[in-house]
Amino acid sequence: MAATSPTAGAGSPKKAGMPRRQAAVVPLDYSFMGLTSLSEMQQHDPVSGTKKSLAAAGLTTRSGDGLASPTGVDVATAAGTSPTKKRQTSVSLRVNNNKIFSLDDMQGALCAVFDYPEKLQWLDLSGNALESIPPDAFSAYPELFTLHLHGNLLSKYSDIDALAKWLPRLHSISLHGNPLEEKKHYRNYVIASFPHLKQLNFSSVTIGDRDQAETWTKIYKNARNGGKRRDDDL
């Protein structure tokens, strides 16, 4: 397993800049459970938070019947609960400090534990053994606001590309403790890839950082995309 790094304070949904209403909902917490895949979440109860109930399975896409609000965040308990008594479903997930090595099962796994996985806003995958990000792994989560990936085994810029393609709203990302961090222009590459990024590795992205990344993009990243440079050259 890759080395881990503490995320106290900055690693909390309440302090990640999320809308207060969503940040106040307790995240599903599957940290430190020895999981080797995300699919294993379905077999366990989270340390905190409430996962999708079996009674609600297959009903979460319905609307207009008291099970879904227009926002897709508040749902009535699927069985035996008055539609007037609604609960807020979590939009945050901790799966840090496990032994997860692949995200190939991510979409199915999140559908199994979240009422509305497409509403996911905060995700902690730090301290696992991820070596790569599948190209479409994050395609279903356009509202993701904060993503922690530090302490894994990511080493290629293509992993950043796989994230940037699907996460237009990403506000904060942590990547320290990955081999990727050793690349000379890694910080510029990451900042340039996410136009709305405000935090990288729990440090603010300044106007100067943004200007530098944009200048670098014109010279280096565009050259890479044109096939003139290899991924390892940057």
TrEMBL record:
Subcellular location: Cytoplasm
Transmembrane regions listed in the UniProt entry: none
A GO CC term assigned to this protein in UniProt: cytoplasm
Gene3D superfamilies linked: Ribonuclease Inhibitor
Main location: cytoplasm
Chain intervals for the UniProt region annotation (Disordered): 1-21, 61-88
Domain of life per record: Eukaryota
Keywords attached to this entry: Cytoplasm, Leucine-rich repeat, Repeat
Residue ranges with Polar residues bias: 79-88
InterPro entries in the record: Leu-rich_rpt, LRR_dom_sf
Name used for this protein in its record: Leucine-rich repeat-containing protein 51
Lineage of the organism: Eukaryota, Sar, Stramenopiles, Oomycota, Peronosporomycetes
